[in-house]
């Protein structure tokens, strides 16, 4: 894992290769990054823009010392859907995002607070509050909590045979590429699955090209300002150069629901940087330091919320690109960020993406969400958590049932439910249940 890099952190690639290397990172993050706005109703163009700008913010905060790319986080999909009222299974569904975006902005603030505490007190307290026995079930809940969305989109809850067949083909392509793909293709199975599933859906007449044809036949509409949804002090809208810009008033009613997830994604952040450190052969948790990497992630997420984008997070897909190509240049990840920003203004491109049927994403999501849940299980296995130990079983069992069973607690106008409530319960149980020699089920 510590093999010598072809290009180091500060190395600038030759101009002739720079674009190709950066576009490779765009491909790696693209499928997952657009899937989040697709499932939450947030504009795809804004998600791409926020992803690119967020990565540049991260590079600035870390003094260009870490080859990380930030993309849309999956951890917040369920709460954004619940808080905004957007239903990806209902055609024409429109969400109200004031409370959701406010919650995501606060997540960014929480990141900054964590960053400050780490700078002053070190990172040991995070490891105590979020040990593997808590983090594992959290990640499992993220994946399993989305399973109904995947099944609905795939048409497996009463859809037509065309929807189901498209989902199966899309899923099959992802599996085949993941198992049999070579070199770069192997790390973009979801992107290939989207492309292949889209072609198949087009052949059987499941794709509505109406909007895309309208755009492609009107050259004046090819380029468009991203559909920003600015978070501020009042509701409203405005038309800017043909693009509808929405303004949402800050609404703090969902903060207690969304903000606790910051600790889940902070834990993912730590894990991603630990893996990348092993690949590159540098300890990024100490240089530039965990305080700076979390600060960059936090500012990027707060910025994304202010313009109507999903929360940002470090992407394992792009870490895989670094490991496979042995190119750790921040010039390359920065170039990918610029490409993403440019693509966000190509309305002809985002219109084509919007034409992708839900069943394509549904088939891909089956394995994608399953992978997320499996990673939670992997955390428990890798850390040798003894599930025959009654204490551990109580923590995991309580978190899974609370996180997946539709639990909700209301405090006036504030609500805590699902994954957020499960995270709180897991942390509390881990602290209060006695440690040492414990009864087991063996």
Could you please describe the fold and organization of this structure?
The mean pLDDT is 84. This protein has a three-stranded mixed sheet, with helices on one face. Helix 1 crosses helix 2 and helix 6 packs antiparallel against helix 20. Strand 6 and strand 7 form a beta hairpin. It has 442 residues and is mainly alpha-helical. The two termini are 37 Å apart. The chain is built from 20 helices and seven strands. The protein is globular.
Structural features:
two-stranded antiparallel ribbon; mainly alpha; three-stranded mixed beta sheet; 442 residues
Structural class: mainly alpha
> Can you write the helix and strand succession as a string?
HHEHHHHHHHHHEEEHHHEHHHHHEEH
Distance between the termini: 37 Å
For the largest beta sheet, what order do the strands appear in spatially? 2-4-3
Largest beta sheet, briefly? 3 strands, mixed
- Give the oligomer, counting copies of the same chain as homo and different chains as hetero: single chain
DSSP strand (E) fraction?
Answer: 5-15%
Number of strands: 7
Overall 3D form:
globular
Mean pLDDT: 84
Query: Fraction of residues in helices?
Result: 55-70%
**What is Rg?**
21 Å
Strand-helix topology:
Elements: H1 15-40, H2 44-61, E1 70-72, H3 77-84, H4 98-121, H5 124-129, H6 132-145, H7 147-153, H8 161-180, H9 183-186, H10 189-203, H11 210-216, E2 229-232, E3 236-240, E4 243-249, H12 255-258, H13 261-280, H14 285-306, E5 312-314, H15 316-325, H16 330-343, H17 347-354, H18 358-382, H19 390-404, E6 408-411, E7 414-417, H20 418-432
Parallel strand pairs: 2-4
Antiparallel strand pairs: 1-5, 3-4, 6-7
């Amino acid at each position: 894992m510590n093999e010598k890099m072809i290009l180091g952190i500060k190395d600038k690639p030759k101009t002739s290769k720079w674009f190709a290397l950066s576009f490779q990172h765009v491909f790696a993050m693209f499928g997952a990054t657009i899937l989040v706005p697709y499932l939450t109703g947030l504009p795809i163009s804004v998600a791409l823009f926020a992803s690119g700008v967020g990565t540049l913010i991260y590079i600035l905060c870390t003094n260009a010392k870490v080859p990380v790319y930030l993309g849309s986080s999956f951890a917040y999909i369920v709460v954004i859907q619940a808080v905004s009222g957007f239903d990806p299974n209902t055609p024409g569904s429109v969400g109200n995002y004031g409370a959701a975006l406010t919650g995501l902005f606060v997540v960014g603030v929480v990141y900054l607070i964590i960053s400050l505490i780490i700078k002053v007190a070190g990172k040991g307290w995070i490891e105590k509050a979020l040990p593997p026995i808590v983090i594992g079930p959290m990640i499992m809940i993220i994946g399993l909590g989305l399973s109904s969305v995947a099944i609905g989109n795939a048409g497996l809850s009463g859809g037509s045979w065309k929807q189901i067949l498209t989902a199966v083909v899309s899923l099959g392509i992802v599996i085949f590429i993941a198992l049999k793909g070579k070199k770069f293709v192997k790390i973009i199975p979801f992107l290939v699955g989207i492309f292949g599933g889209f072609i198949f859906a087009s052949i059987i007449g499941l794709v509505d090209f109406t909007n895309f044809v309208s755009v492609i036949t009107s050259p004046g509409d090819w380029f468009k300002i991203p559909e920003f949804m600015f978070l501020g002090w009042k509701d409203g809208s405005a038309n800017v150069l043909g693009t509808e810009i929405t303004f949402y008033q800050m609404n703090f009613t969902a903060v207690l629901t969304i903000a606790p997830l910051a600790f889940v994604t902070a834990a993912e952040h730590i894990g991603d940087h630990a893996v990348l450190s092993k690949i590159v052969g540098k300890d990024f948790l100490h240089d530039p330091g965990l305080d700076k990497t979390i600060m960059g992630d936090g500012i990027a997420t707060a910025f994304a919320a202010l313009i109507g984008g999903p929360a940002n997070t470090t992407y394992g897909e792009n870490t895989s690109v670094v490991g496979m190509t042995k190119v750790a240049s921040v010039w390359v990840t920065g170039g990918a960020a610029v490409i993403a920003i440019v693509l966000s203004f190509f309305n002809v491109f985002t219109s084509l993406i919007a034409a992708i049927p839900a069943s394509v994403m549904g088939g891909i999501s089956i394995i994608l969400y399953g992978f997320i849940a499996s990673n939670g299980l992997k955390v428990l296995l890798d850390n040798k958590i003894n599930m025959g130990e009654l204490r551990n079983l109580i923590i995991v069992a309580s978190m899974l049932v609370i996180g997946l069973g539709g639990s909700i607690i209301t405090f006036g106008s504030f609500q805590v439910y699902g994954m957020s409530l499960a995270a709180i319960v897991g942390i509390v149980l881990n602290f209060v249940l006695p440690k040492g020699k414990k009864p087991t089920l063996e």
